[in-house]
Each structure stands twice: as structure tokens, then as C-alpha cells.
């Protein structure tokens, strides 16, 4: 009998886990979620992401991003309908932003000198002095990609349906309720918790180390490449600078903020003005030199990054007789770590299967590019 699995949550983490689990026909998968692709709600983080690949982990915690990059790269090359395109990235550093004593935001390893990810992302190089704008001390460039989240979430959902996943709208107050929500009518063998910030209040989880990191952005029609990001700004402590153009006519995202414990869902016009002013100052070409008035705004948006003190939680526990596998707390790197995190979830699912007596010796490779040696785990 197939393993009966319920995935709670339909953001990028839940959809990726469900899709990969369902490719193994030994699993029967149901997604249960309050919000689905196409919804816009402050509780649902995935539609508000940029999203891109700008590594955020330190070397010792880089497995998730290392294992995700090859799959996103493959999708970008082979499946244009998924809404991903390659984009060169430029990161500018200010030395003072790298000093925790002078930076109110968590340290971002993206801006470290001699970073680990130069081994992973193509065409990494340090910028020459004449390539670094006034106000910055150094920078680097590398090949990356940008995801049109509107297209990609729908593509993930389509891949789930293609592989037999049944998707249900539902609200649960306790994680153990998911055991009885399989479309088969039978109790689930395993429940995958991908509720993100919802894990703060979800019964049976109630993870008090979770906190929102509010991100405000502006989506514009203007086109601008490459992708830009800086280590800090001269504005408010929670202000950031990033700019990325989405694939398939998805517009260009201007950001942003990283504001801890701010639950406000309404965009702040003062924050929006600061975002746009920073963009046209550093990249005047986006508005043809016309300043903020040259930006054609599609919408202002706010999302809440599901931050977890101590990092992402990907682990098993038995809760009231239910095998639960958690995958939440990705903060701002949910997309760029999605396949690596889902891979670990599947390893944990397979631990349960082996404990039940299943023989997995003939199991197919999870990723078509992987020879099974997993050389990029984290080392």
C-alpha cells in the first residue's frame, strides 16, 4: 500500500515537497492549505518574494542552497514555462555594513569577501575599482537567476497535479488534525509541516522562535538588468536595496525592508518613496534618467518573511502518534533553498519508510542531474 502523506501548506516549500514526494509512486500525497497560488494574503509569504538566488547562508549551513541551485538552473534551461530566467547579479559592499556592531540587520554572508558560493555560481569575480560606484568599497558579480513567482507557483502546482497530488483548501488549528485530511479517507502515515510563519501559533508546534521580518517592495513595469543588491543603505535601519527583473513580463521588483516583528500588512508610502529614490539614484537608467516620476508602478506590496531564530527547522518528531516532518523557518531564502530543503524532507520520509520495513535499495535518483554522490552537501 502506498505511503499516505499529507503536506500542510502550499507555499514554495510545501509545493516543492509535495511535487518531489509524488514523483515516487510509492507515495500518495494530499496538500491541505488555507492559501493557494493565486492568493494574496499577508499570511502567505511566497507570492511576495522577489525571488532570486543570492546566497544567504554561511559555508557550514549551505547545503540547502548548494543542492537547490543545480535544479533551478536545470529548470531555467529546460522548462521556460516555469517562469525562471538567468540574470547577472552585482553586489556592492560597504565595509561598515560587515561589522555587526554597526549594522542593525543580521549579517548577510552574501557580502563576505572570498565567499563560499564562488565555487557554485558561474562567472564569479570581484569588481574592479572603476566598477564600484561612489559610496561603496568593493563588490562582486556572478551569474544568477530570477523567478517570476506568479508563474512559478502555478507551475509547481501544475506539476503536483500532474503527479497525482490532490489539493484541498482547509484550515487546521492543531497539526495532528492533518492526519485525517488525506483525500484517500485513510489516516496519513506522515504529515509534512510547511506552514512557515503559521508555525508560530499552530497547535502542536507553537514555535516561539518564529518571527515576521516584514518586507515592503514596489513592482514596476520598467525593465532593468542586471540584478543589483547592496550591503546597506543610509536610510532607516530596516531599509535594504535590491532590484531584479522577473521573467516573462513579470515586472521589476524594487526593494526593500527587513523589519523584524512588524506585522503591518499595508504598504507605507514613506518607505515606498525611499525605495524608489534609492533605485533611481543608483540605477538611473531604469527610469530613463527621469527619477521617480519615470517609474511606472504596478503595485506596492508587503510580505512577511518566516524568520526562525537559530535557522530553518527540518526534522522529524512523533506528535500524539502522528509522524510529523517539519520544514519551516526559511526567512528570505525559501525559493533558493527549496529543493535542498525538500531533499532533506524526503530523506526523513524515507527513514520512516525503512523503519516500517520498506526496501528502498532500488529507489530512483531524486534529481536527474545527480549521480547519487551528493558532492555539494555542505563541505
From TrEMBL:
FAD binds at residue 195. D-dopa binds at residues 305, 332. GO terms for cellular component: cytoplasm. Signal peptide: none annotated. Residues 5-348 form the FAD dependent oxidoreductase domain. One of its GO terms (molecular function) is FAD binding. PROSITE patterns: DAO. Keywords: FAD, Flavoprotein, Oxidoreductase. One of its GO terms (biological process) is D-amino acid catabolic process. Its cofactor is FAD. Belongs to the DAMOX/DASOX family. PANTHER family: D-AMINO ACID OXIDASE (PTHR11530), D-AMINO ACID OXIDASE (AFU_ORTHOLOGUE AFUA_5G11290) (PTHR11530:SF16). This is FAD dependent oxidoreductase domain-containing protein. It comes from [Torrubiella] hemipterigena.
Amino acid at each position: 500500500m502506498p505511503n499516505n502523506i499529507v503536506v500542510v501548506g502550499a507555499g514554495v516549500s510545501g509545493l516543492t515537497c509535495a511535487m518531489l514526494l509524488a514523483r515516487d509512486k510509492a507515495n500518495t500525497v494530499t496538500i491541505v492549505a488555507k492559501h493557494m497560488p493565486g492568493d494574496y494574503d499577508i499570511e502567505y509569504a511566497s507570492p511576495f518574494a522577489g525571488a532570486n538566488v543570492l546566497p544567504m547562508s554561511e559555508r557550514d549551513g549551505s547545503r540547502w542552497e548548494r543542492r537547490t541551485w543545480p535544479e533551478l538552473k536545470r529548470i531555467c534551461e529546460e522548462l521556460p514555462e516555469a517562469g525562471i530566467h538567468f540574470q547577472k547579479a552585482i553586489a556592492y559592499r560597504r565595509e561598515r555594513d560587515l561589522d555587526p556592531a554597526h549594522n542593525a540587520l543580521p549579517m548577510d554572508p552574501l557580502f563576505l569577501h572570498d565567499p563560499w558560493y564562488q565555487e557554485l555560481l558561474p562567472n564569479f569575480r570581484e569588481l574592479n575599482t572603476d566598477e564600484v560606484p561612489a559610496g561603496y568599497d568593493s563588490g562582486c558579480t556572478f551569474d544568477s537567476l530570477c523567478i517570476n513567482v506568479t508563474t512559478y507557483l502555478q507551475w509547481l502546482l501544475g506539476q503536483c497535479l500532474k503527479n497525482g497530488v490532490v489539493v484541498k483548501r482547509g484550515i487546521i488549528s492543531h497539526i495532528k488534525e492533518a492526519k485525517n485530511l488525506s483525500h484517500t479517507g485513510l489516516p496519513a502515515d506522515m504529515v509534512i509541516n510547511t506552514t512557515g510563519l503559521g508555525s508560530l501559533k499552530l497547535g502542536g508546534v507553537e514555535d516561539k522562535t518564529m518571527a515576521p521580518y516584514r518586507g515592503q517592495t514596489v513592482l514596476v513595469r520598467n525593465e532593468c538588468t542586471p540584478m543589483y543588491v547592496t550591503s546597506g543603505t543610509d536610510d532607516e535601519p530596516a531599509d535594504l536595496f535590491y532590484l531584479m527583473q522577473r521573467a516573462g513580463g513579470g515586472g521589476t521588483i524594487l526593494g526593500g525592508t527587513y523589519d523584524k516583528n512588524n506585522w503591518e500588512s499595508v504598504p507605507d508610502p514613506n518607505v515606498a518613496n525611499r525605495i524608489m529614490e534609492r533605485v533611481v539614484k543608483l540605477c538611473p537608467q531604469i527610469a530613463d534618467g527621469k527619477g521617480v516620476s519615470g517609474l511606472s508602478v504596478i503595485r506596492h506590496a508587503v510580505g512577511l518573511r518566516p524568520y526562525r531564530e537559530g535557522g530553518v527547522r527540518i526534522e522529524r518528531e512523533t506528535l500524539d502518534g502522528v509522524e510529523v516532518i517539519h520544514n519551516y523557518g526559511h526567512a528570505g531564502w525559501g525559493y533558493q533553498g527549496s529543493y535542498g530543503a525538500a531533499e532533506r524532507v524526503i530523506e526523513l520520509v524515507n527513514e520512516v519508510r525503512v523503519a516500517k520495513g520498506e526496501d528502498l535499495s532500488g529507489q530512483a535518483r531524486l534529481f536527474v542531474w545527480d549521480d547519487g554522490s551528493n558532492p555539494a552537501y555542505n563541505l
